[in-house]
Amino acid sequence: MGEKTDSGTLVNEARQLIGLIAAIEPYWATPGISYFNDMVKALESDDYSTALEKVYLVNKTFRSQTQYIEPENNGHEVEDEEKNSLKAESNERFAPVVEVLLVDNGRAEEIEGFKQEMLDQRRSTDKFNYNFVVVPSVEDALVALVINPTIQTCVLTPRFEINTKRKLSSALHGYIQRQTAGRFSSRKPMGLLIDLESTIARLRPEVAVYLVAGVALESLAREMTGRFQRIFSRNDGMDLHLSIINEILSRYETPFFTALQHYARRPAGVFHAMPISRAGSVQNSPWARDLVDFYGINLLLAETSATSGGLDSLLDPHGSIREAHELASRAFGSHLTYFVTNGTSTANKIVHQSILAPGDIVLVDRNCHKSHHYSLVLAGAHVKYLEAYPLQEHSMYGAVPLSEIKSTLLHLRREGMLHKVKMITLTNCTFDGIIYDPRRVMEECLAIKPDLVFLWDEAWFAFAGFHPIYRKRTGMSAARTLESSMGTAEYRRRYKQQVQRLPEPGTKDNPANDDAWLNTRLIPDPEKTRLRIYSTQSTHKTLTSLRQGSMIHVYDQDYVIRNSNSFREAYMTHTSTSPNYQILASLDIGRRQAELEGYALVQRQVDLALSVSKAIARHKLLRKYFSILDSRDLIPQEYRVSGNANPVRDGLASWDDAWETDEFVVDPSRLTLDISRTGVDGDTFKHTYLMDGHAIQVNKTSRTSVLLMTNIGTNRSAVSYLIEVLIKIATDLEHRRRLDGRSAEDLKASAALKVPLPNFSYFARAFDGGAQSGDMRRAYYLTYRDPATTFHLSDGIRERIAAGQEVVSAAFVTPYPPGFPVLVPGQVITTEILDYMDMLDTREIHGYHRDYGYQVFTSEAVAELEATDRRK
Q: Which DSSP letter does residue 204 get?
């Protein structure tokens, strides 16, 4: 009886799931709705074996995780010689199958004829195959693009409806309505086509859009130049087929990786540097041969310092590397993109040095990565630090509120220092997954200083440009949207109203007027504003690349006339003349993958993260000791207009709404696991319980939390293993708790020792750069004078502070992770900072000597520097 009950329960669950699938299956071409219906009929007839066979066939033959795998003939009759050719090639290559969205509400027989005509064009030599998803309306088209990531191309016809006749879920319907709001009001087919094309471009910019029309092609071509990839008549099946194949091939192209492969396959004699090239020094060595055995011969065949023969120079690219840069620029939506082979730390140094001169003021999130702080020492810029909101309960910082940024700019304007402000640097997203609204930040800052340069450190956010909801929170997408909106008449009307409403800027003697500027949602002057935006991304962190593979994306309207030379020199300064070709090749591949399957991979990583959250929330023992922090925990209410604690969980419409309105949002693929109820601190939990105990790798911890990150390489097996490990840990904790009689709340109390988060103190007068900014370069190089510095342990510094002395740090002190300095050269040390450092349980602290303590300036060195300034 029990087995029958279990069997019946499973069948009922299967039928519920099939009901959900039935709503979306029409938006997929393969295996097709008829195949799906056959499977449903088998299930309803209790023919479970046939139903299971069909499900198994779908998983094995048709669908992989992100795309379809072509069946032997894909339901399309081929000639015998072609069959043999297909079978011969199947063992040598993997032929992906993409899907083409056809928007057409014509007669069924016409559509079937067109589809068959197109499919007949396919040949076994094609590197890609495709199948058609046919939808009759705008709403159906958008649904298909949202839920079917294998769609790579869209073919529009003038025959379509606006509204779907299918029943959509409330979340999906709400999201689609948001995409169509204010659009599709035109009664003319041409206007509707333009609206649909622009909506598709905003939602899935990687999807190529073609127009197939019956008449007046010349007129359409004149009026829609630049809107469509190409315009065809219904009789141009061959040209349309070739266009689809070639456009996808253009994204598949990897110029440098291909050139490196060709180089590795050619015979060559090496009379150059690098004995290891082509495995020359290790192939026949009894002492080094295991390097070949471990890494494989291809790695060493491709190891070279040559820049010719199809290869290229990273420092002066004119061939395959330049082409790879151009493809990456297209993929990430930039004006220009550059590859970096030694990490985003170097990318940040390049951008800072290219923009900033000694004495320029730069606004910097105090909690940004240490590479920025070192960059500013090199550039000689004066640093004005911005404070992020603190999360004291969780011993971490959030992000910098827009009010903090605006008030700082307005203060500098009142002080007559705004002209010296050159740049602002912010981390998007933060280590803990807090994401800015870059468009709003840039709009409001440019309204105060229209030539401000932005550097968005997106080291952990490279994947975001390939998902329709994430994308709008990236620097490059926000720049493009801002430029587009500023060119409209509606924008100019809004700006004119703002000018009439806002008072004159405040002054040093009368700052009150700045309150209106601070409390108004500002937009910049479209005539004066220059968009100068840079993003640095660690491709290797969140997309496919070998370690240290990074990119710099440039969206700078003044790049050619103001920054191209200085950028080139900065790039030369920090880039090796012997860059790693394997890293460059992996960046080329990573870009290709992101363009062709990035959307599917990003959505999968979000889904897997949600599955972890749900598993913890639903498991009685897990939720007793663990919880996942949501927006309520990580973002104060004042920065969340939507008020939604977990918008992604509530569906697309809620997710999109929150990310459209909230000042800050949380990356749903990052999970901050609260472990406070375990009674174990974060560092111990990471090393002892996770890494040493179960080989689970995590990056960042706080005293009461562990950061779990999903990425495009995460799979269901890894998620299952994580849940299994957490259950084992919780079971062990429960056993120990019963032995010592303590509750989970008692354990939480025992671990509740808070690490007070200190604000940045201030720069000592000797290193003041004006308006409370600091000259870190001056402090950094003062340490070169002997004996300008000494070392003190915490107790010694406390004694000096108690005696009324000002103790000034001579070095960067950086706990790692998360990797931002608590002290910088020239900063005054306070007891609050010492309290924080004394309570840290981080094992790795850069700039702090465990035996000698902190490096600080001697009072004599600081006094001598101040006396020199007075004499000047």
A: -
Contact between residue 841 and residue 687 where contact means Cβ atoms under 8 Å apart:
no
Q: Are the beta carbons of 689 and 680 closer than 8 angstroms?
A: yes
Full DSSP string of 432-471: T-EE--HHHHHHHHHHH-TT-EEEEE-TT-GGGGGSTTTG
Cα(753)–Cα(756) distance, integer angstroms: 9
**Are the C-beta atoms of 816 and 844 separated by less than 8 Å?**
yes
CB contact set of 574 (below 8 Å; sequence gap of 6+): 342, 346, 349, 350, 353
Could you give the CA distance from residue 204 to residue 151 in angstroms, rounded to a whole number? 10
Distances (CA, A) of 211 to 229, 435, 622, 760: 8, 37, 53, 57
d(CA 685, CA 552): 35
Residues 6+ away with beta carbon under 8 Å from 451: 528, 529, 530, 532
Tally: H helices and E strands in the chain = 35, 26
pLDDT in tens, 378-396: 999 999 999 999 998 888 8
Tens of pLDDT, residues 514-549: 999 999 999 999 999 999 999 999 999 999 999 999
Mean pLDDT computed over 218-239: 77
pLDDT at residue 510, rounded to an integer: 86
As beta bridge partners, residue 431 has none
**Three-state SS for 616?**
helix
Rounded-to-integer distance, Cα 521 and Cα 448, Å: 12
From CA 340, how far away is CA 346, in angstroms rounded?
A: 8
Q: Is 165 helix (H, G, I), strand (E, B) or coil?
A: coil
Q: Judge contact between 100 and 244, C-beta under 8 A.
A: yes
Residues pairing with 36 in the sheet: none
CA distances from 36 to 32, 99, 115, 292 (A): 6, 17, 20, 49
Q: Got the DSSP string for 799-859?
A: HHHHTTPPPBB-S-BEEETT---SB-TTBBP-HHHHHHHHH---SEEET-BTTTBEEEE-H
Residue 755 corresponds to which amino acid? V
Contact 543, 596 (CB under 8 A): no
Contact indicator for 605, 716 with CB cutoff of 8 Å: no
- The number of beta carbons lying within 10 Å of the beta carbon of residue 60 is 10
Q: Strands 814-816 and 705-709, how do they pair?
A: unpaired
Q: Is the pTM of this model over 0.90?
A: yes
The amino acid present at 88, given as its one-letter code, is A
Burial bucket for residue 168 (CB in 10 Å: 0-12, 13-18, 19+)? middle
- Whose CA is closest to 607, among 114, 286, 149, 1? 149
3-state secondary structure 647-660: CCCCCHHHHHHHHH
* HEC readout, 786-816: CCCEEEECHHHHHHHHHCCCCCEECCCEEEE
735 by Cβ neighbours in 10 Å (0-12 / 13-18 / 19+) ranks as exposed
How would you label 202-223 residue by residue, b for 16+ Cβ within 10 Å and e otherwise?
ebbbbbbbbbbbeeeeeebeee
